[in-house]
Amino acid sequence: MIQTKGGVAVDDFAIVELYHRRDERAIVESDKKYGELCRCIALRLLSIWEDAEECVNDTYHAAWNRMPPDRPQALGPFLGRIIRNLSVSRWRREHAQKRYGGIEVLLSELEDCVPSPGTVEEDLERRQLALSIDTWLDSLGDEDRRLFIRRYWYGDPVKGLAAERGEGANALSQQLLRLRKGLRGFLESEGVKV
Amino acid sequence: MNAKDIFDGVTDIRDDLIGGAGETPKKRKRWGRRRWLEAVAAVLAVAILGGVFLRPGGGLTVYAIAQAEYPKMAPYPSGLFQFSDAAYSVWREDVAEQRRDLGDISPLQDFFARSTQTFLTEKPGENRVYSPLNVYMALSMLAQISGGESQGQILDLLGSGSMDELRKQASDVWNSNYRDDGALTSILASSLWLDRDVKFKQGTMDILAQDFYASAYRGKMGSDQFNRALRSWLNEQTGGFLEEQTESIELDSDTILALAATVYFKAKWHSEFLEKNTASQTFHAPSREVEADFMHQRSSQRYYWGDKFAAVSQSFEEGGAMWFLLPDEGVSPEELLADKEARDFLFAADKYEWNNQKALLVNKSIPKFDVSSQFDLGDGLKSLGVTNIFDPMVSDFTPMTTDVDVPIVISQASHAARVVIDEEGCTAAAFTVMPAAGADAPPDEEVDFVLDRPFLFCITGDSGLPLFVGVVNYPTGD
């Protein structure tokens, strides 16, 4: 029995179960619980809200196709990953015609994290890179870790993060730059292997 | 390796890292855009339909014989909150509960298109505002209280196969558009005002309350008290926005019933127009040039076009949007309404599916305006095939009253509406005039969208249905 009224959130397990039972309420419950998260991420990446809305719909469609067999423990990150992937695919496909400001800014910042040529295998597998980033994030203090993820996973704007922390945007940008360079140094020093 | 690889690597970091950074982005607003500016759009409309016959007088009080109960909605959480907060979940639940699957709405769209063309083109060159949903609700109620061919003509116009079908649809339309949560106000309110001597059928009144969310009141028709009560109800339902128009509303003692329907819609822009960018600019009205305050905004968004128009939308914060249609040079808004392609766009269920569109940087220049109009729907309804309710020889209101020996007709069908969009402040900003849109595709990167000549607008609620459609010939009033 799924009970959502009165602020009792449906747990992820129950929603995932709905997907596995091919019950269309899965989409409704996903949207209730994570719709805002998905829309925020998509909008921050794509900047065009109609496209973001389409991307959210595509996300649920993709989730429907992936469950089963997938059975994610945490649905938020699962849906968030899908929407990030769909957004970046859309950017790759259409950025010649469309201006996806958010994603372009993030990618431009993440250029700072790219290791110098020759230090890392060009065809580094995505999963292994993620594990390396996990390790690096684990080595950070709480504040730095949260800041990096909020900016580069959730796509929170710098101004918003600065206001939340009571800092100036310039100071926060400097902190983010330091973190990006830190990640690059880590990837280089690790000599990440495929 | 490139930045995209890093982006992908970040995408795949562990769940606990993602969750630990803050489950969701912390923002007060859904899209996380505006936080402080009170940009407000408020519109409303009212339709009064009156039935008349001779009757004896008497009586003093006004009392309700059926009361509509509106859904109770949880308030939109105030202040900063997390999307995972319980108050936010409850609010989202309530919003979701109001949504209805409207099924095939093509007959409705046909009614919207035909009636809009009829009512908005009666007086070319003037400001004109029409609420398709408001008139739809009023006509639906009329269908409920009428019978025989009187009812049949209304069903035909609304594209409904039966009264059962219309009742269900009207209820769904009403619920889909209802929002009263502090973030967005969108209320379709209706009421029936009966003379105290009318022998009404309680069952019909109960249906009106239950399916049409309409209250029914009874009192001495023509008395000051009854007129005051009606005006007070209208002003209350419309947030006082139509006080100028309601002042003149008076039902005389010959009236036996009046039907009032209102729409009140108030919403904040999703992305505010910055006050510092507002500047005075010339608007090329039909008979003269007028100075108006133009709001300016530059944003990445979709730009739509057809053979004779270009269009953009401006979203509201918690659902719905306002659409602006700029006719090509030399085409009036009234002529544009006669263009099938423009009407198809105006009433498309999903404009985002429109073929001619492109995501661009759009420099919008939109005049602040306050436009209102008041007109009688009678002739227009007759031209649309609804004639019997105006003719005492054939009108049939037997479902509403047991007074079958006296002919009842609709004596007036007044529709008033007002739309206001604005923000505050004023400084200079310069924008060039948009090139003629026409059938040509817009430029590749960036386009100016300057509403400095008569244009059309359409306001859609959360349901996507047209709450208001209007022609702006004079943004500062006639």
pLDDT averaged residue by residue of chain B: 79
Segments of chain B where pLDDT lies below 50 for 5+ residues?
A: 23-45, 53-60, 424-440
Domain count of chain A: 2
Give the percentage of residues in beta strands of chain B: 25-35%
CATH superfamily of the largest domain in chain B: Antithrombin, subunit I, domain 2
The coarse overall form of chain B would be globular
The CATH architecture of the largest domain in chain B is 2-Layer Sandwich
Q: Which regions of chain A have little confidence, pLDDT < 50, spanning 5+ residues?
A: 1-9, 118-123
| Shape annotation of chain A | globular
The CATH superfamily of the largest domain in chain A turns out to be RNA polymerase sigma factor, region 2, helix turn helix motif
**What is the CATH domain class of the largest domain in chain A?**
Mainly Alpha
Number of helices of chain A: 9
Q: Biggest interface: chains and residue counts? A: A-B, 73 and 50 residues
Q: How would a textbook summarize the main sheet of chain B? A: 9 strands, mixed
Subunit arrangement of the protein:
heterodimer
The number of E-state strands of chain A comes to: 0
How many helices of chain B? The count is 13
- Work out the helicity level of chain B: 25-40%
> Which bin fits the share of residues in helices of chain A?
55-70%
N-C termini distance of chain B:
63 Å
